[in-house]
Write a structure and sequence with these properties.
Layout: E1 2-9, H1 15-22, H2 27-35, E2 38-46, E3 49-56, H3 60-66, H4 69-78, E4 93-95
Antiparallel strand pairs: 1-3, 1-4, 2-3
């Protein structure tokens, strides 16, 4: 199991719409994530700052999940909401785990 975290910035005054869209993600998008080894996926916001946390089966899980056709279409839908870099891609910053401790016992 690998933990992945990312951060990105929303465009000014776009947080409410961004959040509303994420309340009902496409079933085929969540299926693609699951099929590529994404086991948990959470998004948090602080104003216009977005933080994503996920647990994946391998380091390649996100790379393969993000390269799917359904994720490409979702990305096009999100483009008006997210700050883009010079090559018109989301300006995403990888986050580094400082502390993670599973506490549940089986």
């Amino acid at each position: 199991m690998t933990i992945e975290g990312y951060s990105w910035q929303l465009r000014s005054r776009m947080a409410a719409e961004y959040i509303a869209i994420h309340r009902d993600p496409w079933p085929e998008l969540t299926a693609a994530f699951r099929d590529h080894g994404v086991e948990t996926f959470s998004i948090y916001t602080d104003g216009s700052q977005v933080f994503m946390h996920s647990e994946v089966v391998s380091a390649d899980s996100w790379r393969t999940a993000w390269s799917t056709e359904v994720h490409r279409r979702w990305g096009e839908l999100m483009e008006p909401y997210i700050d883009l870099n010079k090559i018109r891609a989301p300006a995403v910053t990888p986050l580094h785990v400082v502390y993670h401790q599973p506490l549940a016992t089986t």
